[in-house]
TrEMBL record:
Stated name of the protein: Threonylcarbamoyladenosine tRNA methylthiotransferase MtaB
InterPro entries: Elp3/MiaA/NifB-like_rSAM (IPR006638), Methylthiotransferase (IPR005839), Methylthiotransferase_CS (IPR020612), Methylthiotransferase_N (IPR013848), Methylthiotransferase_N_sf (IPR038135), MiaB-like_bact (IPR006467), rSAM (IPR007197), rSAM_horseshoe (IPR023404)
Molecular function GO terms recorded: 4 iron, 4 sulfur cluster binding; metal ion binding; tRNA (N(6)-L-threonylcarbamoyladenosine(37)-C(2))-methylthiotransferase activity; tRNA-2-methylthio-N(6)-dimethylallyladenosine(37) synthase activity
Taxonomic lineage: Bacteria, Pseudomonadati, Bacteroidota, Cytophagia, Cytophagales
PROSITE patterns hit by this protein: MTTASE_N, MTTASE_RADICAL, RADICAL_SAM
EC code(s) of this entry: 2.8.4.5
Domain MTTase N-terminal, chain residue ranges per copy: 2-114
Length: 439
């Protein structure tokens, strides 16, 4: 039995796709093994957003060669689509597959026999028009289910549309079927994943469904306890979606909404499809129907032309907004994007300083959100990671909790009372009925 190992860089979408590709190998009789378990084949799923993507890719290939000198090494993913030639020149790479080819690798690389020449099978991104269904089954607790791929927006900093192509989606029927399959494995939580998740519903270039139709259907899938929406653009987070989540049986009160900048000048330069006012109205709407909803925000610092005043506008905007945490990204120039030509670059040192300031703000926001939730009763899904006799999990509204390890609780939903924030930033809990869980 030939052995195959996988390595994934980047986002949840990449993880769900690697997981699906690994199941395709297993169905064909290959054995999935750990990276260090002398595999015959390595599949490396790359990301173009990861900083130093090329360095990382080279390093992983080097390591793979050391572990199995004769293995067949294949590179797939966003970086493979963007720079196939560059990757094919990395010593030790046997094949590079683009976005339109990666799900057909078993057929295209039939037998995985090494040859003198590196195979490069990467069509232009316009060729990536089909939707390939994917979901991850890596742990027992949570699954990333891909519902949408690609993006039709053209934010000036982003390479994703170049790496993943136009917006396209699965059908509602297929997604429900995947959700039922996931439920049958015993997984309790599904995270709906896509490049532009809220844009769900486009097939063959035409809008055939809406995101709200999908979530209404998913809410009725028996056996799944929680469904989380991974991230949704503010202009697509319509009132009907917020109101639906507020009364839903399975969708949890947690939204992750990219903002990117609190300055309208920068938002326009980024070619985002909203201004700061719309973002405020989304947050206010959520708070009006779900006061304890967790709201996460993506923000980019150091975009070309971002002055100290623009940055402070973002800082003040976020400081005043009732949100729960930030994901801070330091802007970095990407090839073939318009952003670097729009204005003078911000010095690296300044970008890092701004990033540090927002990370500190994020910690303050998270702590405030946790404090507001203390003494409340919440439902936690306990996970498998055990550390120093403690186990962890997330509440419906995405508060990280810690409790004394109890094997019976793994992958179980439990009603708990949130008691206090410990020094590691977790909230310690008590059983809602009887005190058993704190140290
Ligand atoms: S919405 Fe903008 S940032 Fe997000 S994937 Fe599309 S182009 Fe990139």
């Amino acid at each position: 039995m030939r052995k195959v190992a996988f390595y994934t860089l980047g986002c949840k979408l990449n993880f769900s796709e690697t997981s699906t590709i690994s199941r395709m190998f297993e169905e064909k009789g290959y054995k999935k093994v750990e990276f260090t378990d002398t595999p015959d084949i390595f599949i490396i799923n790359t990301c173009s957003v990861t900083e130093n993507a090329d360095k990382k890719c080279r390093k992983i290939v080097r390591e793979a060669r050391k572990i199995s000198p004769d293995a067949y090494i294949t590179i797939i993913g966003c970086y493979a689509q963007l720079k196939p030639k560059e990757i094919s020149e990395i010593p030790g790479v046997d094949a590079v597959l683009g976005a339109a080819e990666k799900f057909r690798l078993l057929e295209l690389l039939d037998g995985f026999v090494r040859t003198e020449e590196t195979k490069v099978l990467a069509s232009e991104i316009e060729g990536a028009t089909t939707f390939n269904n994917a979901f991850s089954i890596n742990d027992r607790t949570r699954t990333f289910l891909k519902i949408q791929d690609g993006c039709d927006y053209s934010c000036t900093f982003c390479t994703i549309p170049l790496a993943r192509g136009n917006s396209r989606s699965d059908t509602i029927t297929n997604i429900i079927q995947s959700a039922e399959e996931i439920a049958a494995t015993g997984v309790k939580e599904i995270v709906l994943t896509g490049v532009n998740t809220g844009d769900f519903g486009i097939r063959n270039g035409k809008r055939e469904d809406k995101f709200i139709d999908l979530i209404r259907e998913l809410d009725n899938v028996q056996g799944i306890d929680r469904i989380r929406i991974s991230s949704i653009e503010p202009n697509l987070l319509h009132d009907e979606v917020i109101e639906f989540v507020a009364q839903s049986k399975r969708f949890v009160p947690h939204f992750h909404i990219p903002l990117q900048s609190g300055s309208d000048k920068i938002l326009k330069m980024m070619r985002r499809r909203y201004l700061s006012d719309l973002y405020v109205s989304r947050v206010e709407k959520i708070r009006s129907v779900m006061p304890h909803c967790c709201i996460g925000v993506d923000v980019i610092v150091g975009f070309p032309g971002e002055t100290d005043e623009d940055f402070l506008e973002t800082y003040r905007f976020l400081n005043e907004l009732d949100i729960s945490y930030l994901h801070v990204f330091t802007y970095s120039e990407r090839a073939n994007t318009p952003a670097p030509d729009l204005a003078e670059p911000v010095p690296m040192k300044v970008r890092h300083e701004r990033s540090r300031m927002l990370r500190t703000l994020s910690e303050k926001k998270r702590r405030k959100f946790y404090e507001e939730n203390l003494n409340k009763t919440e439902i936690v899904l306990f996970e498998e990671d055990i550390e120093n006799g403690m186990m962890h999990g997330f509440t419906n509204n995405y508060i990280r909790v810690a409790a004394k390890y109890d094997p019976v609780l793994i992958n179980e939903l439990k009603k708990v009372k949130l008691i206090s924030i410990n020094t590691s930033g977790y909230v310690e809990v008590e059983d809602a009925e009887q005190v058993v869980l704190t140290h």
